[in-house]
Here is the input.
Amino acid sequence: MADIIATSNLCRYFETGSEVVKALQKVNITVKKGSLTILRGRSGSGKTTLINILGAMDRPTEGNVFFDERDITGLTDFERDDIRRKDMGFVFQSGALIGNMSAYENVEFGLRISGFETKERKVRAIECLNMVGLGKRMNHRPGELSGGEQQRVAIARAVAHMPKIVFADEPTSALDTTMGIQVVKIFRDLVQNHGLTVVMTTHDPSMMEIADQVYTLRDGETVNE
Ligand SMILES: Nc1ncnc2c1ncn2[C@@H]1O[C@H](COP(=O)(O)OP(=O)(O)OP(=O)(O)O)[C@@H](O)[C@H]1O
Ligand SMILES: [Mg+2]
Here is the structure.
């Protein structure tokens, strides 16, 4: 399978006053289409910085990011917004769902933003909620769902517009281990049975075996373990 993501000597430096934090140093990673990749490492090792750059939310200080074989590093903000909206999906640490909307409405609303037509929105929203095992909870609001269920709604929303890749920064850190593993298994299923590509960060060592590939970061560099 071809690479959907590749980086070339990615560096990200943050200047704070007189100090420069080297959050990423010469990071070279690749992600194959249809795979589940985990980025791991201690707090402050650069996971979020890396996923933000891969997801075109931030730019590297040096180096390049290739998405679907195209160098996206130097594209305009507008072009990058477009790629993010159409080809990428995002899941954050905790839900970020709209509280007064049902699970169904949350997913449907995301599709509206992506420009899907009414009929298709309905079909896709129901299909994706079924995919994450929440068909029966479709009309519940986030407050009426468990933390794990809320994350599954967030996953349904992130995949509904059929992105080429989904990024998830610590999607399980607000959950207990059992629920966390449930959420990661949903990702596994989407990769295995629906051809999705997922890149996620985690601290949790029990998640590693479920990944096709694991990159470990230490002080902004990838290390072999
Ligand atoms: N906007 C910023 N300005 C200055 N320093 C930053 C900024 N963002 C991140 N850093 C620094 O870069 C390093 C990497 O941060 P990052 O958030 O990527 O770590 P992380 O691996 O995601 O950690 P955690 O597991 O705690 O989420 C840290 O030393 C952090 O303090
Ligand atoms: Mg982080």
Q: What stands out?
A: The mean pLDDT is 93. The radius of gyration is 17 Å.
